[in-house]
């Protein structure tokens, strides 16, 4: 995932920051507890395509 692209992408719902989960191939919104998939290098930023994170999957805050 391109660093410049990650710097400008935000959650389409809350406009909050996204965190790249490289092993899962997803962009994570901590605020909405959603994971947006990345397919063929393209982030799919549609609410209908996102999955809800389980409590076990939530990314710890730095």
Automatic annotation (TrEMBL):
Pfam families: Trm112p. It comes from the Bacteria. Transmembrane segments: none annotated. GO terms for cellular component: cytosol. SUPFAM superfamilies: Trm112p-like. InterPro entries: Trm112-like. Belongs to the UPF0434 family. This is UPF0434 protein Thimo_3380.
